[in-house]
């Protein structure tokens, strides 16, 4: 699978999972320096497709991969680094991306949890007393069968 197709697939998968991906982001912090293929800077989640075609092997080496793994373990950043040999086709790349994304807490899920925490639970809502509820009014119009028939003379 060529680099352009792989990166396009990864971007679609990450964006479908709720991430705001910017392509080709220069990352340079604490010993990690390379241009990541796709990155959500706010959530610090991204992906790097390592291929011979793009020559990524020189800047995304074992030391960088280990540092990224440590950052993920520390909860600082999560970057999927996938080598073209580990995902040579669309199906295997999709599986790898989906497995990585499933291991993360989804942005939408975080927002839903925050909203749920703000809403009072049903048991906490004040209940109206029976005496305070208005009673239904009796029908004022007589039903057709109850109405008096006019007398015949």
Any overview of this molecule?
This protein is α+β, with helices and mostly antiparallel strands and 153 residues long. It has a domain at 3-105: 3-Layer(aba) Sandwich (Endonuclease, Chain A). The chain is 33% helix and 19% strand. It is built from four helices and four strands, in the order αβββαβαα. It has helices spanning 3-16, 62-73, 90-102, 107-118; strands at 22-29, 32-40, 45-50, 78-83. The protein has a four-stranded mixed sheet, with helices on both faces. The longest helix has 14 residues, at 3-16. The termini are far apart. The model is unreliable at 107-111 and 121-126 (pLDDT under 50).
Comma- or semicolon-separated keywords:
153 residues, alpha+beta, Endonuclease, Chain A, 4 helices, 19% strand
Question: How many helices does DSSP assign?
Answer: 4
Give the overall shape, derived from the CA principal axes.
globular
Q: State the CATH class of the domain at 3-105.
A: Alpha Beta
Overall mean pLDDT score?
Answer: 79
Helix content: 25-40%
Total DSSP E strands: 4
Give the second-level CATH assignment, the architecture of the domain at 3-105: 3-Layer(aba) Sandwich
